[in-house]
Amino acid sequence: MTLIHLAIQQAMRSQCRHKIGAVLAAGSRVVVASPNKYRNSPAIDHRNSTFHAEDAALRRARGAPVSMVFVARVNAECVPMLARPCPRCVVKLARAGVMRAYYTVGPSTVDMLEIPPLHHSMG
Fold this sequence. Notes:
Blueprint: H1 3-13, E1 19-26, E2 29-35, E3 37-38, E4 50-51, H2 53-61, E5 68-74, E6 80-81, H3 87-95, E7 100-106, E8 109-114
Parallel strand pairs: 5-7
Antiparallel strand pairs: 1-2, 1-5, 3-4, 5-6, 7-8
C-alpha cells in the first residue's frame, strides 16, 4: 500500500464533515497517521472546531523526525478530492522538518508541494 492510500484510509476514518487524513513519514517509514478530529463542538466554536489532519498527526508524532507528509481528502462517496495543506499547516509542517507534502487533487491525481525551511530572523 502506498502512503497516499494510507492517507485516504485515514480520511475515511474521520468523523468530520470534511474528511481528511494525513500520514507523516521519514523516508519510506510511517511515523504516524491520523484523520482530522473534533476538538470543540461546532455549535460552540465553529471557527476552531477541528484539528486539521496534519496538525493531529504532528501532535501524535511528538517531535519524532519526519520529512514528508501525505494528505488526502475524500467526499461522501469516499472519492479522493483536493487536499492541499493550508498555509497554517504548511508553517507547522516546516517547523517539524517536513520538506515535501504529497496531496490528493482528484480521484487518480496526486500533486507535490515543496515546503521551504523556515528562516529565523535575528531580531
